[in-house]
Amino acid sequence: MKVLVPWAVGIIAMTTLSVTPAHAVPDPDSSRLREAVTVDAVFGHMQALDDIAAANDGERAAGTPGYEASVKYVTDLLGDAGYRITVQPFDFPFFDVLGPSEFEQISPEPTTYVADVDFGTMVYSGSGDTTAPLEAVNVTIPPPALPGATSGCSADDFAGFTSGNVALIQRGSCSFATKATNAENAGASAVIVFNEGQPGRDGLFFGTLGGPGVEIPVLSTSFELGNALYQSTLSGETVVRVATDTISEIRETSNVFAETRGGKPQSVMMYGAHLDSVLDSPGMNDNASGTAALLETAIQMSELGIAPRNRVRFAFWGAEELGLLGSDYYVTTLSDAEKDRIRMYLNFDVIGSINGFPFVFAPQAGDGTRPESAEATEVFSDHFTDVGLPFAETPLVSGSDHLSFIVGGIPAGGLFSGATGIKTEEQAAAYGGTADEPYDALINSPLDTIDRINIDVLDDMTQAAVHGMYWYAFRTPAQDRARTRPAATPSELSTVPAR
After folding, report:
1. Is 320 a known active-site residue?
2. Stated pTM of the model
């Protein structure tokens, strides 16, 4: 599950609808499919994806061999199950830090700076190793009262710049990419961007160039360090060494779709999970868990000969961890007619959290989501109530692939078992686990490993996911839901993390 920039984790008080629902008409009976989709089989797919990661440098990130092997695993199984398979390629900006970056002052005072403490490596920085004099570019010291320094924002700032030197640039009114590009065009061998200096803009920061293109190293520092380096240049020649080992380039990755051959083509129900991990991680909870539940559901629908009333399309997204790139590409390339055919999208991301809790995505007043999305919330809520499990609602507008559908005007819903938010005492009492601890503190890290999957949580969330998918596979227009449930009351149970 991608933590957007802006996927930050916050805490939002909400209400849980955990009372007995009133159904407008009898629901399709999902029990046969739920019995067939076992947690052992789901976990088996996760083990296969873990083996793929282990054979590919411990990762399954988009643009890497581990992701391509994950695509093959999914497509082989779904093709054998008889689905119509589509692999949709798209380009995306890839960046990886292959080795530790280095920054040191050679003279006049030899100093070695510490990565991620004294300096950072800009995302999409180029690669290189240079030792050269430091040259300040249109620096404003003391800094302006309000943000807006123009250091490096114009090619004219580099008039007289000595080719081969390292450019010292102050943060300010234009993008880091503009500053770095201007410096590279002027012949700089590396770039140091220091914070501008106003309150709140003085510490070490971590920036991005927005995409590949700059081929020289680009680092960031605090105002204090940047100003010290600037003062040193005023006193005489200051020689520094900058070294980065990165890959910054455009790569191709893909989405995978498996569609039933039957079902009403004008009534498409889509179910999705992202297939990629972050770099340097096997991505077991985030998101082999959702991938495996989706995959096994599709396989068992075929094995049981289930012929859905509606066309069903399973989606496995690429490059979710880089900003929902795969699902965004898919939705933005759909025609209006194709969007209209998609009646619901359900998303399953992070559903095996070690200290997890059942969360149901729910629209909020004024969030701009389609009113039909509330039905998906009710379908999942009904299931948890019917099987006697506690649950809580979490905002639908949040950072996983369903957001791409919401932005595209398509109704959406889904499930989530919690990430870096904190489990409440009431949630722990109702469902188990440890209060005052994160649901899963280690997603989006190399420690998102298969031994940290909570099998019970995975089972409960998978069963709910299967019910939702089955319900929409057979949904008819006559099944418009009656909004007759009593108003809920706030509780600690419903204080949940927004993603």
Report:
1. yes
2. 0.88
